[in-house]
Amino acid sequence: MKEMYLAGGCFWGLQKFFDQFDGVVSTEVGYANGPEGAAESAPSYEDVCRSSGHAETVRVVYDETRLSLPELIGYYFMVIDPVAVNRQGNDRGIQYRTGIYFTDPGQYPELRRLYDREERKAGRPLAVQLEPLRNFFSAEAYHQKYLEKNPGGYCHIPEKYYHL
Known about the structure:
six-stranded mixed sheet
């Protein structure tokens, strides 16, 4: 199993989006890559909304024999605006920034190649962070699988993307 941490705006919709794919073993929403020193204690949702510096992020555990890294990252870029700074859809703030956070340094060369390809497509620099995971804290239980529990909840990802 491999894991990747993906920040793409509000984590509710990103979690629901990735849960649909064969090869995704599990997902978990949480708060990632807050400032140095933030690793000592988990922020609350309220802390994150008050600009703690963490990004709303989905931890994706996947079976690389059924879902390749290029496929995973391709899906990610399908549902984000990669040039938007600190916002996705109607959500604005540093917690809604985009980022690809990895734990396996061996994945970096392929991630860099995929990132550069997306940047060429965009025709300008991406606002997506590409860096090692520094910290990750699981979000509160009510955020996990939120759109499954609250089907009418807001999400910047269009409904059509939940049925690929």
